[in-house]
From TrEMBL:
Family annotation (Pfam families): DIT1_PvcA, TauD
Protein name: TauD/TfdA-like domain-containing protein
GO molecular function: oxidoreductase activity
Sorted UniProt keywords: Oxidoreductase
Span of domain TauD/TfdA-like: 416-672
Organism annotation: Diplocarpon rosae
InterPro entries: Isocyanide_synthase_DIT1, TauD-like_sf, TauD/TfdA-like
Coiled-coil portions: none
Amino acid sequence: MTSQLQTAFGDVFRLLKAILVMPGLLSSTDEEFHAQTPTIQPSLFTKLFAPFRKIKSSLPGGAALTSEQQATADGILQLLKSYSPPGDVNNSIRRIHVETSINGIVKSGGLLHLTLPAFPFKSPNSIDKVLGTLPDIGEEIALARLEGLCADLERKFCKTQLSIVSDGLVYNDLLGVKDETVWKYGSALRELARRKFPHISFVRLNQLVSTGTEEAKTLDEYLATAGMYRDRLVASHTPAGFDVKTHLEQDPSALMTYRGYIKFLETDLAYAEGREGLSKKGRKKLNEIVAKKMIVRGTAFSNAVSSAFPNAVRLSIHPSLNKKKLPISLFPGSNNNFVTPWHTASVIEMNGTIRLAHRSTLSADPKYELVTRRGLPSHFQEASPLYHWAGCQIDVTPLYPAGLVISPQDGPDAVSIEKVDMMKVKALAELNSPVVLRGFSSTPSPESPTTRELFMKKGREMGPILPWKFGEVLVVKDGGDATGGLNNVLSSEPMPFHFDGLFKTIQVSDRDGSDKLVPQPPQFQVFRAATPSPPHTGFTMISPSRLVFENLPSPYTVEQLSGLTWSCRTTAFNATALAKLDLVVPHPTRGTPCLRYHEPWGHDKTRFDPTIVEIENGPQEILTVLDELLYDRRVCYYHSWQEGDWLVNDNVATMHTRSDFASGSSRELWRLHID
């Protein structure tokens, strides 16, 4: 044991020495923050940390994990890593402390507790960088992504909770941001989490430095103690004899953070009082002074977080070499590595992709227009006539991870569904499904004397309705054992991911002249919630192909999947058996690759007829890869129905399913197929 430890620590010492002499790492030049991240070859880390892997079973707690527990711990770590910024050169670092925390949680069978220091306050520069002082769509999407991470961890492994520790009071006075501004920003985030994100809670500074202290309930109470807790943090958690200059020389992660602070401060303090007339060199000098103070306070803050949450898994929104932290990205996409909504504004592209940039950049681009919600600026979107309807003022809000919700600007039931431009809804659904219409009244009119006739009328405005054995409108509700020839569709069971129309087939001649059954799927589905649905259950889940392909794990690629075919057979739907089905097909109007698939659904998942699915010319493991991705919250939108909701979905561009719900409940949806 002793010789193993000596060898291991000797290797780590050589690693640290190698890091500290990397060319340019300790340079004082002011390059971009992320450009300063040192490139370390994965093979180096594999070699250097191998001794720790060898002695793992000899360390406290290392040998106690069963093979099943180890698989769970490894799965948790891999899921967390899937939220790491793609392409980050430090992703190969083995986070020993993170692994130890996860192993301890799995061993105890307790709550998986995550902590994330983040969400301080908006940048004080609302001229160039941000849209204001309150949270906007950027914060909402970031929280939705974190909620999705927690929900997936809980679905697959164990109960999970995320504590976001706000560092607003740690730094705000250094940047000229008032304590009151920090309070209002944090309070708005807490209300957002309370309404939408049950796995997320927030921790204020007073709760961090004074264990057992209740959170301030009023602004006056908060303001009365803010300065005291800030001083207490620095006094009680700054290491004895701490010297910031020495710290920056010896800690590569701290140096990266310091350079990042300097870069951010250039714009954060661009309009700060007392800086008028200063030269660029003079401003830089002041920024360096502020950045060093932030490093001192940040060190104290980090120690306080570790002390308050010793067993939690520590997440970070900054690039880091620190083995105690696991870096994650608050936004999807390789262009959003380590960007935060409190330093930027958000722009939503027509296909639903989110991008973050400075407000001044987006304002100057005629391609984009500013969107307001509840009278406050929220985000930018591509300027398009699809977002503007004649005689109907609407709010268009992006959903995470995909889709839109469109509501009347004047509130619920202020506008009839009759006024909705269904051709524009159809066009939007082709670009970014699903499109949810919420808050429009469905009051029948003389032209459409019943709600069902109104539903069919609006469907026909999109195109011809495609009937099937049930007619034009399918009423989807729990029918018990009465399947209506539709297998488990009319039950309260969960359903497999699928596309509609797989089992609506015609016979054609194959290339070799033989007869072949092929599906006849519609391009669109239109749903309407005719009744309230039970809360937190009976979700309609929609996974766009774009997001499936963007999140394919290595070594799988869209090109590889495009060459595969699959077969499907079931005793339901007149004992349908299909073969030589392309796994990827082009979208009929846009030409983009679309997944065409049915999740395998055996007797272990249903009391009705099973569906057997096989890859014909490739490894069967691809089925597991696809099934995992389709439920992944980075890919899948979980829709919770409200009475009166309409939902339009592109049946080719997406896959969809339903979660289970209480048998005999009132959940009732109407569905149309539109071509």
